[in-house]
Every structure is written in C-alpha cells, then in structure tokens.
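To: structure desk
From: M.T.
Subject: fold request, one chain
Message: Could you run this one when you get a chance? Sequence is below, nothing fancy, just the single chain.
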Amino acid sequence: MPLKINLKKGQKIILNGAVIENTNPRSVSFTLMNEASILRDNDVLTAEEACTPASRVYFNVQGMYLFPDKREQYYQNVNQFLEDYERAAKSALPITYAIREALLDGEFYSALKQARHLIEHENKVLCNVQESDPELLDYTSGGESDAK
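Reply: Done. Structure tokens follow.
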C-alpha cells in the first residue's frame, strides 16, 4: 500500500537509514510505493539524547528498525536495558512485555511506539519520586559543598 509523505521546509526523515531533508523553500510530497523503514525527525532520538534507561531502550529499538544489519547488537542492548528497567520498576512489566513481543514478531515500528510508552512511564515514575522527596533528585544540594 503506497504511503504519501509530506515534508515541510527543513524537515528531515530517515528512510532505510538515509537522512533526507527538504531543502526546498516549500513543502514537498512524495509517495513510497513499497515497504520501507521511515522515521520523521521528531521521532528520532540521538545517542546523546538517550540518557535515561527508557530512552536507551527506545534508541536501541530505533537502531533495530533502521539498521537491519546491526539488529543483533541492538537486540542484545535492548534486552539488557529492559531487564534493568524491569528490576527497577515492576510497574512497567506490561510495557516491556509488549516491546519484547513486538520485537519477536519483527514489528519494529510497533516496538518503537511501545518504547515511547516506556519513556512516558519513566517520566511518571520520576515525577512521583520527586513529589515524594524533592531532594532525592536534586544533585546540586549537599554533596558538592560538603566535599570542600
């Protein structure tokens, strides 16, 4: 089934691992006639942005989706990060289970969507921790001034 893509000026997509940017001053559209791995720039997470446990899961699932030749390496990373996350937050088990199932079924885009849910879960957990004890997440208080 063909997929029509519209790109605004300056917008980027990743198509089968290649970054494509609209450098035209106007929006452009094109149609994909066959199956392809595609992500819009607002769905792409860079290595530098993958700085939390859930975002590391997303980044590695993204790698599995975009770079089939490196899937095994990314898959090992995803499994380790999911195991770590599950130990830290048992409440995430339905989400991590859904990610694993999607990956086993070869549904990498679906796994990416579930990894987004994991990031949302992580944000809620961290928000709850901060509400219960604001100093727990405040790394600037105490430690540095006591070290002098």
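Reply (cont.): Strands lie at 3-7, 12-15, 18-21, 28-32, 38-40. Let me know if you need anything else for the meeting.
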